[in-house]
Amino acid sequence: MITRKTPEQIGYMRRAGRVVAEMLARVQAAAGPGVSMAELDQVARDVLSARGARSNFLNYHGYPATICTSPNDVIVHGIPRPDVVLAEGDILSIDAGAIIEGWHADAAVTFPIGEVDDESVRLMDTTQRALDEAIKQTVEGNRLGDVGWAVEAMCSEAGFGLVREYVGHGIGTAMHEEPQIPNYGPPGRGLKIKTGYVFALEPMINAGTGATRLLDDGWTVVTADGRRSAHFEHSVVVTEDGPEVLTVA
Fold first, then answer.
1. Which of 8, 12, 171, 179 is most buried by a 10 A CB count?
2. Span 191-216, pLDDT tens digits
């Protein structure tokens, strides 16, 4: 069921979004060569504790951590393990979420560890711009196909591979609500967007093909060809004045 959120409910989500933005900023500041994924998870836990928020990732269908840490060829849902350590030249995606008064926010960012190769820079830039273009389409009267097409067109122009199996989603009193929001689709088709809808938009783009592979842990999704992937996400509310990003400081 798709629900329109009230101003009061959006206020709680805005508070949760600020916590998520702080989590991502603190984790990025702590990341560097020699730092383990488990250490970064603890940074995120500390932010949640300090802000009186709860994690919407921890124990979600058994997920064992507070954030998802996805380096290099990991697309999404990487588990922050103590034996996975960052090195110069890596790229790292962090996906984080928080709950305030029962209301959720969710966001992700991909960033370099030191100096990275030109293709990785272009991959991250393309994915970030794809999210920006998708956000621009979340206005009253547009359709979800317009949002997906914005991502697909950006990816195609750059010559990268689009991940199709994993999509954006509605968000509210649950982290994943209706509707599902593919990062592709014909413009002018799909659900009509209305004020009060809140979406978690999250393009995932690969340097090679869009093909994916699930590891034996049941969570970690990697590129099938071993090339790198980038992931950016924001929680966005549709207002009378256009889209408002909730997951910012």
1. 171
2. 999 999 999 999 999 999 999 999 99
- 32 is written with which tokens? 């560097």
The one-character DSSP state at 72 is T
Mean pLDDT value across the chain: 98
The DSSP 8-state label assigned to residue 62 in this structure reads G
Given a contact cutoff of 8 angstroms between Cβ atoms, the answer to whether 108 and 124 are in contact is: no
Sign of CA dihedral 26, 27, 28, 30: positive
DSSP conformation letters of 22-54: HHHHHHHHH--TT-BHHHHHHHHHHHHHHHT-B
CATH numbers and ranges of domains, the chain: 7-245 (3.90.230.10)
110: nearest Cα among 71, 159, 165: 71
Is residue 75 pLDDT above 90, yes or no?
Answer: yes
Which pLDDT band, with edges at 50, 70 and 90, does 1 fall under? confident
Beta bridge partners of 177: 170
pTM of the model: 0.97
Query: Taking the CA of residue 55 as centre, how many other CA atoms within 13 Å lie in the half-sphere pointing to its CB?
Result: 23
Single-letter amino acid code for the residue at 17: G
Report the 10 Å Cβ neighbour count for 213.
13
Farthest CA pair distance, the chain: 48
pLDDT, tens digit, 9 for 90 and up, residues 56-68: 999 999 999 999 9
Average pLDDT over residues 132-158: 98
CA distances from 68 to 14, 59, 72, 74, 80 (A): 21, 12, 13, 10, 6
